[in-house]
Structure formats: structure tokens, C-alpha cells
Design goal:
Blueprint: H1 9-38, H2 47-72, H3 79-108
């Protein structure tokens, strides 16, 4: 038998705020990715470096904010932080699969 635990409003608001911070970090990552793709036509040389640096500097606060919101409230109550953090791993996996497909196509030719 499970019992419903009461979580204070203050904790819920802090966890929601941390979820918003995680969401803003993920949005910044996707905006930088779009910026690099937009400048891909004039061949920006530092494009992958920009995406990697933005990923590195925004993933750290996103992971920390998600872990703190998990500690404040249970995992079921911080869905915004979970979804925002999963957007990072989607981008990473998509890039890895794209690179793997690119190397396979290049070696077959």
C-alpha cells in the first residue's frame, strides 16, 4: 500500500523553477545548433566547436538542476526537468547516428 506524501509548495515552486532553467538550457542548445546550420552555407569553420562548447556549458547546469529537483520532489513531480534533459540526449544520439551513417557511406564508396 502506498501513501501519498505531501510536498511543500516551496519545494514544488523551486523544482518548477529548476525545470524552467533546464528547459532554457535545452532551448539554448537547439538555438546554437540552428545558428550553426544557418551559417553552414557560408561554411563557418568553428561550427562544430560552437555546438560542442554550448552543449558542454549548458548540459552541466541542466544536469545539476534536474538532480536538485529530483532531490526536492520525487521524479513524478519534476517532469519538465526530465523532458528537458532528455532533449540533450536526443541531440547527442542523433549526432552519433548521423556520424556513423556518414562514415559507413564514405567507406562503402
Amino acid at each position: 500500500m502506498t501513501t501519498a506524501t505531501q510536498i511543500s509548495l516551496k519545494r514544488q515552486l523551486i523544482a518548477t523553477g529548476l525545470g524552467v532553467v533546464t528547459l532554457l538550457c535545452a532551448v539554448l542548445l537547439y538555438l546554437s545548433y540552428g545558428f550553426v546550420m544557418w551559417h553552414g552555407v557560408p561554411e563557418v569553420d568553428a561550427g562544430p566547436l560552437i555546438v560542442f562548447l554550448v552543449w558542454m556549458f549548458t548540459a552541466t547546469p541542466a544536469i545539476i538542476c534536474t538532480l536538485v529537483s529530483l532531490a526536492l520532489v520525487c521524479p513524478q513531480r519534476c517532469k519538465l526537468a526530465w523532458i528537458s534533459l532528455c532533449m540533450y540526449y536526443y541531440q547527442l544520439l542523433r549526432s552519433l547516428f548521423h556520424y556513423a551513417g556518414y562514415t559507413i557511406d564514405k567507406s562503402a564508396a
